[in-house]
Amino acid sequence: MLPPLLTALVVGYLLGSLPFGYLVARSRGVNIFEVGSKSPGATNVRRVLGSGPGNLVFALDALKGVLAAGWVGFGYSVHTDGSRTISWSISESDIFRCAIAGLIGALLGHSFSCFTKFRGGKGVATGAGGFAVLFPLGMGIALAVFGVTLAISRYVSLASMLAAASLPFAAFSFKQGSPMIAVSAVVAAFVIYRHRANLARLAAGTENKIGQKKSPAPTS
Questions:
Q1: For residue 69, how many other CB atoms are within 10 A of its CB?
Q2: Nearest residue to 207 via CA among 162, 157, 160
Q3: Of 56, 59, 96, 198, whose Cβ has the fewest other Cβ atoms within 10 Å?
């Protein structure tokens, strides 16, 4: 039997690798890797195919993060008398570590999916789903940062990066433990790194804004 942390990492990777953006676009006759920014993320799907498919992909990608970070806890029961049982032999302290491993695995799977030749998205929706389980208050702050930035700038990429960057600051401000601060910082750095092409376009003034006319969607 695989050690719990490795099991969580592998399960998270396989969940994260599910290429929902590619599949939703393909169901519309579009190869998402050939249009727009060529990313299977929700933003590109929305830009190419509209808000319906884009919102669906966001929800499904977020669900990957929720499941990857939360599946271990599904076997963890709290009884009416306050006692707790767990349906497999890992300690209570391992629950949180396994949740972190699951989220890291999901982000890697989403960004480097084994089902799409190790291509993938930037991890924003999947990360959001995972932090909704791990650190709901921090996720709420990140969501507020995202909304304010998007309303002012209309750049989804900038809003995503600033929202991710707010997570380690929220973890530190609300006195979360060192593991949460560390994983928040690692995930924020990963999301920003995955947006490096967007950073270049922002600097050049060529980044797409929300509501900008979408590119035609050629079929293949």
A1: 31
A2: 157
A3: 59
Strand partners of residue 21: none
**One-letter amino acid of 181:** I
Cα dist from 51 to 19, 29, 58, 61, 89, whole Å: 18, 17, 10, 15, 44
Kindly state the tokens that stand for 16. Answer: 């994260």
Task: Tell me the mean pLDDT in the region 212-217.
Answer: 52
Bridge-based pairing state of the strands 84-86 and 76-78: antiparallel
What is the rounded (10 degree) CA torsion for 217, 160, 188, 65? -60
Q: How many Å apart are CA 95 and CA 86, to the nearest integer? A: 10
Lookup: tokens for 68: 């990857």
In angstroms, rounded to a whole number, what is the distance separating the alpha carbons of residues 83 and 192? 42
Structure token pair of residue 95: 């629950």
Helices (H), 154-205: 156-173, 178-194, 196-204
3-state secondary structure of 184: helix
Q: What percent of the chain has pLDDT over 70?
A: 85
The confidence score (pLDDT) of residue 79 equals 45
Average pLDDT of every residue of the chain: 89
Map residue 27 onto helix, strand or coil: helix
- How far is the C-alpha of 25 from the C-alpha of 36, rounded, in Å? 12
pTM: 0.86
Q: Which helix (H) or strand (E) holds 45?
A: helix 42-49
Residues sharing a CB contact under 8 Å with residue 64, sequence separation 6 or more, in sequence order: 15, 16, 18, 20, 106, 109, 110, 126, 129
